[in-house]
Amino acid sequence: MVLADPSSPPGAPAAPAGRSDAWSAADGAALYGLDRWGEPYFGVGARGQVIVQPRGDRGGSLDLVELVRELQGRDLTLPLLIRFDDILEDRLERLHGAFERAIAQYGYNGRYQGVFPVKCNQQRHVVEQLVESGRRWHFGLEAGSKAELLIALSLLDDPDALLICNGYKDRRYIETAILARRLGRQPVVVIEQADEVERIIAASSALGGAPFIGIRAKLSARSTGRWGSSVGERAKFGLSIPDVLTTVERLREAGLLDDLRLLHFHIGSQINDIAVLKDALQEAGQIYAELTRLGAPMGFLDVGGGLGIDYDGSRTATAASTNYSLQNYANDVVATIRECCEPHDIRPPTLVSESGRALASHFSVLVFDVLGAGGHSETVPPPAEGEALILRNLRDTHALITAIAAGDLEVDAAGERAVVERLQEAWNDALKFKEDALTAFRLGYLSLPERATAERLTWASCQAIARQLEGLPAGTVIPQELQALPAALAGTYYGNLSVFRSAPDTWAIDQLFPVLPIHRLDERPTRLGSFADLTCDSDGKIARFIDRGQVKPLLELHGLRPGEPYWIGLFLGGAYQEVMGNLHNLFGSTNAVHIRLAAGGGYRVDHVVRGNTNAEVLEAMEHDPDLLLERLRLASEQAIGRGDLAISDARRLMAHLKASLEQTTYLEA
């Protein structure tokens, strides 16, 4: 998806001078999937920079690279989390719009009223924005703990908005919900464990009032994907059908059946196959009808979370995608529940969903800078006098490879085969000579510099073969061993981030996120690579990338240019990543900023949230920064007394220590 460049004046050239015509911004968009997963919020401009359309197809766009530059001018250093509140509002509108269209299409005699699961992103400005933007739909919140309940109670001042109370509940949690009902809130305490029934009854008796009550049912319908095993008869939460019936009778005995208003179910996060949802909806619809027949007034059916997003743009039933659209989802929910209620002459319930991932994923982009790159040099070391025979053999092999040119042969199948055969033979020789060099080194016949020369010559041969293969016509049959050479040459790009802090799901559950350079997309990438983070942990890496329903271990990247930044964006990470991140190696939260499109063009910065300083993460681990400084000051005085440290150097050391405590935990440019 190539978009108009918002920073380009009218009449400006489509691309900078010197750009190769063999590669365009559209090629970059296709390579990284922006034309698939990015719609309608992300695309690439003609100058090869990522463009953000926070209001989707309703107009208004920002050049992400220019935005980052300007935010750096406000002393917001990378890594930087940019939250586009307009996207959050647009996601709300699309969700409600989809259900409104489905309700009209199927003649559903009910309505839709969603809630946001606070666990998805508990950041204050995020939850506040959702509550404010969702006010016109009486959009509510879902809490899964006491702390989240406190957040929801303080923010939800709309008496028509739902407050769904999930999770484990003690007596205080339940009493808080009962009293909140008297504040004019609409809390629904969902019974998820059988032992919660008696606590609800006891608390209601003690306070002379009850909350609205819901029941979470364990469905027999099984889910698919990464969270498929979290549902069914052995699910962590929910009541079995016998327990549901027991609960109904116990509530009836306690005089609380009239407060039973909601049926809830959940079949896993990121549902990738719409067929799974249909089965669950049919089962839940029948349970709802039976609860009504048993005398409960009901009125609400909560279909839980699970509305997935298409991380890789493949539109398939894979873990990183979905085989349905938002409108498909709404249509199936509405149509299926209508079909369940009509035969029983039951008024269709208000439909509730807890769609956190689908609402929050798109609205934030993490931008981090690349500090450097490691890889194999293709520089051929100069020959030394009296060089060992093994090294001379490697030099001859490299020279032979560089002499093989596809243009010297007939451009036909026989010529192509001849080139490939000669390259394969040369590579076999290079590997044999390298192995000979290693054996000679182990036996003491080659020095360490000579071994280094052998390795450099081998990698130079590898790179020369890779270049030759690139020049062959498309469709040329290449042996598997030679196909693997580009991957063998891949580099490691060192990113200024902590995976464990900013993208923990990439490490914990192999979640795929779109990751790509946010500029230079109008240039053909010439390298393959993966990312290593700042932590001293071998798992601190991003080495799985989206690839049209598949997974690739390496990403197409550009060579680094001296003195120029190389900025990478991680997209669709607005759900769960911030709240589940940890302090591995004491890398804390990053700087974050909330951006809104401004009337008449441009943007405004609504909120700035500074990342953790080194002092803050030390205090989180119960270290006293002042005590640390004092210990080091005393050590400095002792070193000065021994004559090991000059007073000026001690002053410099203490200045560095004090400044470090006040600075972000990440590296400075």
TrEMBL record:
InterPro entries per UniProt: Ala_racemase/Decarboxylase_C, Arg_decarb_HB, Arg_decarbox_C, Arg_decrbxlase, De-COase2_CS, De-COase2_N, De-COase2_pyr-phos_BS, Orn/DAP/Arg_de-COase
Protein name, entry field: Biosynthetic arginine decarboxylase
Keyword tags: Decarboxylase, Lyase, Magnesium, Metal-binding, Polyamine biosynthesis, Pyridoxal phosphate, Spermidine biosynthesis
Positions bearing N6-(pyridoxal phosphate)lysine: 119
Gene name per UniProt: speA
Domain spans labelled Arginine decarboxylase helical bundle: 387-472
Reactions listed under catalytic activity: L-arginine + H(+) = agmatine + CO2
Binding residues for substrate: 301-311
Species annotation: Cyanobium gracile UHCC 0139
EC number: 4.1.1.19
Residue stretches making up the Arginine decarboxylase C-terminal helical domain: 615-667
UniProt GO MF annotations: arginine decarboxylase activity
